[in-house]
């Protein structure tokens, strides 16, 4: 066995959160596609109407569309906020120390 201690791998919270937001943004189109397919399940064999026919189908499609815009906007907003935090952290780390006694 290896005598060296294995340190667990912990990711910084900011980068972990950012990666999960990006994952959510990537999975959003797949989730929305599945939501768009829901009206196909609304069939009734007793009536000879097409599946998903009527106002209910239109309301569903536009509700999913509006929800997609809102969710994508929220994810984008959160990612921008994370980017701004990351940029400010980098600029704070990279600012040179000023020596006020020597004037440089």
Report on this structure:
- There is one protein chain.
- This protein has 104 residues and is mainly α.
- 62% of the residues lie in helices and 0% in strands.
- It has one domain.
- It has helices spanning 13-36, 55-94.
- The chain is elongated and about 85 Å long.
- The mean pLDDT is 77.
SS-based structural class? mainly alpha
CA gyration radius, whole angstroms? 25 Å
How many distinct folded domains?
Answer: 1
Q: Count every helix, treating DSSP H or I runs of 4 or more residues as helices.
A: 2
* DSSP helix fraction: 55-70%
Which spans have pLDDT < 50 for at least 5 consecutive residues? none
Q: Strand fraction band?
A: under 5%
Query: Kindly, what is the distance between the CA atoms of the first and last residues, rounded to a whole number of angstroms?
Result: 55 Å
Q: Key features?
A:
62% helix, mainly alpha, 104 residues, 2 helices, elongated
Sum this structure up briefly:
This protein is mainly α. Helix content is 62%, strand content 0%.
Question: Helices and strands in order, then pairings?
Answer:
Layout: H1 13-36, H2 55-94
């Amino acid at each position: 066995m290896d005598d060296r201690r294995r340190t667990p791998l912990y990711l910084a919270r900011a980068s972990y959160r950012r990666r999960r937001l990006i994952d959510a943004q990537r999975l959003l189109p797949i989730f929305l596609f599945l939501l768009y397919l829901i009206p196909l399940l609304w069939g009734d064999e007793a009536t000879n109407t097409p599946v998903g026919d009527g106002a209910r189908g239109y309301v569903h499609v536009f509700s999913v569309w509006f929800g997609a815009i809102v969710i994508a906007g929220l994810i984008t907003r959160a990612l921008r906020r994370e980017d701004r935090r990351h940029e400010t952290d980098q600029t704070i780390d990279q600012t040179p120390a000023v020596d006020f006694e020597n004037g440089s």
